[in-house]
Design brief:
By secondary structure, the protein is an alpha+beta fold. A six-stranded antiparallel β-sheet has the order 1-2-3-4-6-5, with helices on one face. Strand 3 and strand 4 form a beta hairpin. The relative contact order is 0.18.
């Protein structure tokens, strides 16, 4: 998955914005202001995605291209490499999973605003 495909896929989701709060070399995607995906702009090697802790362990055991989140909570974040070692359909599924986890953790007010964006 190329960076423009990744970016377009994320930005097509309701309530998603992008920014570079950690500097111009790091792209951060947020749903309703909460981070769900992070990647490098200068070096697009992997995407950090939030993941259910139990599923994280299973994914890391099965796929060489899925590692504990670089510079993130190793329990809740994975680094998913985009070098072909992880199938694109799985990368999309993990982006969706990260988005859904973060959206579910939003305040009631923000979840309602997001629900209205979905309609």
């Amino acid at each position: 998955m190329y960076i423009d495909e990744f970016r377009d896929y994320c930005l097509a989701k309701p309530g998603v914005t992008e920014g570079t709060p950690f500097g111009p070399e790091t792209l951060v995607l947020k749903v309703m202001g909460k981070m769900f995906a992070v990647t490098g702009l200068d070096k697009y090697e992997f995407i950090n995605l939030k993941c259910d802790p139990e599923r994280s362990e299973e994914l890391r055991e099965r796929w060489d291209g899925i590692k504990p989140g670089w510079h993130m909570s190793k329990k809740h974040w994975n680094s998913v490499f985009v070098d072909g070692s992880v199938p694109e359909n799985l990368i999309r599924e993990l982006i969706d999973h990260s988005y859904e986890i973060v959206a579910a953790s939003l305040t009631k007010k923000l979840r309602e605003e997001l629900r209205l964006l979905n309609n």
